[in-house]
Amino acid sequence: KAEGYDDPKGFFRLQLCIEEIVGNVIENCFTSDNRTHYCNVSVTLYKDNTITIGVRDDCPKFDLKEAYESINEENLYSNANLKLIFGIPKEIQYNHLLGFNNTIVKI
pTM of the full predicted structure? Predict the structure, then answer.
């Protein structure tokens, strides 16, 4: 437990977000070609107990927010990982800069 961090569910949400976001990168990019790819994950815990997850990868442009907004709600099981990701954080930001996807998630 991080000193001063008093959210018992926080680390579970942190783990789940990282697993789903990085899993999405690996599933949709790392296996699509025979290149070596880059994915960096950073985690910051702030004094107000906010957790920020930063994920940066060199895969083709992929905005989680756009993908989430295009989900067909009629199929309950389609894109379950995106539904899970967007059910947890307070905020998700995305940009594509210099050939890198940059996703910032605040829990």
Answer: 0.77
Sequence-separated (6 or more) residues with CB below 8 Å from residue 47: 4
**Which residue carries 């070609």 as its tokens?**
33
Which residues lie below 8 Å from residue 17, measured CB to CB, with a gap of 6+? Answer: 53, 85, 88, 89, 105, 107
Q: What does the alpha-carbon distance between residue 10 and residue 107 come to, in Å, rounded to a whole number?
A: 8
> What is the tens place of the pLDDT at every residue in 7-30?
667 778 888 888 888 888 888 777
Show Cβ contacts of residue 89 under 8 Å, excluding neighbours closer than 6 positions: 13, 17, 105, 106, 107
